[in-house]
Amino acid sequence: MSSSFSGKTALVTGAGRGIGRAVATALADAGADLVLLARSKEQLASAADEIRARGRSAELVVADLSDPSQLRQAGRAVMEAGGVIDILINNAATVAPLGPTERLAPEEFVSSLVLNVVSAAALSSAVLSGMRERGWGRIVNLSSGLAARPASMPGGNVYVSTKAALEAHTLNLAAETGGTGVTVNAYRPGIVDTAMQAWIREQDPRQIGDELHRQFVTSYEQGRLITAERSAASLLGHLGTEDNGQVWTVGSSPTAL
């Protein structure tokens, strides 16, 4: 299913690379203008050049969403850069820290919670009232299939817990927006060949755990990873529907309009 988002402005977080960049360029191909947010100015500039080459506008907001002070500033900067935000894709996340839970410091949990959950809630709050006023909006939170099987990633307690929390937040917020024209859904993008995957494979098995390391190396060696572009295309197929309060998965068929 293809959809046109001509005349819409989309904010994508973690837009400098990987899934976020692929979603941003797919939205540009579907006619949307973009506000790109990430912590790397160089990667954002490269993504913006790619989008502008497609004939769409791209504004940049540089921020580390794991930092509460930068998160507050980012909400204001987004509205200044994009004005009206019609589509919000909360993609920014971290898989760190990894390893046995008893080795992790409390501040590591907090930093990941802020980036993986609080930033999505905060940015949704920033754009939601405008979406309600216009009677149309799309919010999508990038989750993980691990939220459905949390025991399958030993050594990834923080990541799995935050993704489960993000899905709970998504479904609760969707209940608030029912009937307003604003939809809120989660998306499990599949096992995507990203820098995050490569980073995990490069970690010392003695630090993150042999089983966890073996899982990611095996997935790569068996060719189970998909491209970010394939995952983004699946997401856009769902984005054109009226689904609300759903957990979409890569490759599943979107509900017809």
From TrEMBL:
Tree of life domain: Bacteria
One Pfam assignment: adh_short
Transmembrane segments: none
InterPro entries: NAD(P)-bd_dom_sf (IPR036291), SDR (IPR050259), SDR_fam (IPR002347)
Cleavable signal peptide: none
Family from the record: Belongs to the short-chain dehydrogenases/reductases (SDR) family.
PANTHER family: 3-OXOACYL-(ACYL-CARRIER-PROTEIN) REDUCTASE
Name the record gives this protein: Short-chain dehydrogenase
Species: Actinacidiphila rubida
